[in-house]
Amino acid sequence: MKRHINFREPIVWRLATLMLIGLLGFSSISLAKGGKWRKKADMPTPRTSLSCSAPVVNGEIYVIGGALNFWTAFPTVEIYDPATDKWMEKADMPTARRALSTSEVNGKIYAIGGSTAGNVVLSTVEEYTPEGWPFAVSPQGKLAATWGEIKQSSLGK
């Protein structure tokens, strides 16, 4: 069964806003409610080149990686809680990444590909749980993702 995206759903607006923030490098977030934009708490680490997706676990929005001026990759992980309008800093990723892809599967977040400073494209996947970054995942097959575009992915079970 196909599910169409309803742009009135709060989570869609949150994700769209974070994508815009990542592309433009803003340090704050605004959520649409009732057709009006409202300023929310500033993001602790202003940056560009964030993941083009913003995984949501337990109602919290994860903002992962990114870069300063498009080149200096960050390992930063910050969580925004829309219910409290507060940001929390979490354990950094083992690998600094910019222009990566992220995906949430069964409460775990996967940081996929991207690139490091110097524009070295990564072919690794790292798994994040609410407790931290327990290990790097070896994908079944080759993988490359950068600028939010996955070329080939096979996580398997």
Outline:
The chain has 157 residues and is mainly β.
Question: Helices and strands in order, then pairings?
Answer:
Blueprint: H1 10-24, E1 28-33, E2 36-42, E3 56-57, E4 60-64, E5 67-68, E6 72-73, E7 77-81, E8 86-90, E9 101-105, E10 108-112, E11 125-129, E12 132-137, E13 144-146, E14 149-152
Antiparallel strand pairs: 1-2, 3-4, 4-7, 5-6, 7-8, 9-10, 10-11, 11-12, 13-14
What does this structure look like?
The chain has 157 residues and is mainly β. The protein has a single domain, classed as Neuraminidase (6 Propeller). It has one helix and 14 strands, in the order H-E-E-E-E-E-E-E-E-E-E-E-E-E-E. The strands form five sheets. A four-stranded antiparallel sheet has the order 3-4-7-8, covered by helices on one side. Residues 1-9, 19-26 and 148-157 have low confidence and may be disordered.
Shape: globular
Task: Encode the helix/strand succession as letters.
Answer: HEEEEEEEEEEEEEE
The helix-and-strand class reads mainly beta
Which CATH architecture is right?
6 Propeller
Instruction: Specify the oligomeric state.
Output: single chain
Q: Give me the Rg, rounded.
A: 15 Å
CATH topology: Neuraminidase
User: How many strands?
Assistant: 14
Compute the number of structural domains. Answer: 1
What tags apply to this protein structure?
disordered N terminus, 4-stranded antiparallel beta sheet, Neuraminidase, mainly beta, 157 residues
